[in-house]
Amino acid sequence: MLLSHAFGLFTHPDKEWVTIRKEHENPTRLYVAYVLILAAIAPVCAYISTAHFGWAVGSDRLIKLTEISAVQLSLLTYVAMLIGVFALGYAINWMAKTYGAREEHVPANGVALAAYSCTPLFLAGFALLYPNPWFNALVFLGAAVYGARLMYDGLPIVMGIEKEQAELYGVSLLTVALIILVSTRAGSAILWNMGFGPAFVSG
Fold first, then answer.
1. Where do transmembrane segments lie in this chain (predicted)?
2. Percent of the chain with pLDDT over 90
């Protein structure tokens, strides 16, 4: 079962990457059975906390989103996460030959590498149930660092390249990930100006 990889990536990542490489999982099935499920954690938890629990920064009053606004923002977040994983997987495949990846590993394993490397960020979504900005920032920062570490360790195993090449490959992918993040922020600003911004209510 694909979801079993989530546990393995935290307990024995190197062995898990070897297993993932051998699977050559179909990208569509990987998306449906893994990414679509785990990527839903953060939006669902964010909806619950913003619409029902409310957020308080310091000693300020409790702030909540309206039901409609919370649903809209959660759905937009979900779509952005799915697009981000796909874009990262595409970038891995696109740059594979440049860094000496074995061609037979590229089509399926590039997407798999992106999806499984994002596992810590997916699971960090549970932290949103505790509506504290500093706590959430620390959790997601730690998840991002561990996700980057997973990708760095998985590149030579999954894509079949030398570790020296994997270092350059990893730096390039980190740049792509940052571009995706900035694009997401810019897209959010545009959507907010189009009327999809948050609508607040006092708790």
1. 31-55, 75-96, 108-128, 134-152, 173-192
2. 41
Q: What is the value of pTM for the model shown? A: 0.90
For residue 46, which amino acid is it? A
List pLDDT tens digits, range 25-74. Answer: 788 888 888 999 999 999 999 999 999 888 876 666 678 888 898 899 89
Distance CA 156, CA 101 (A): 8
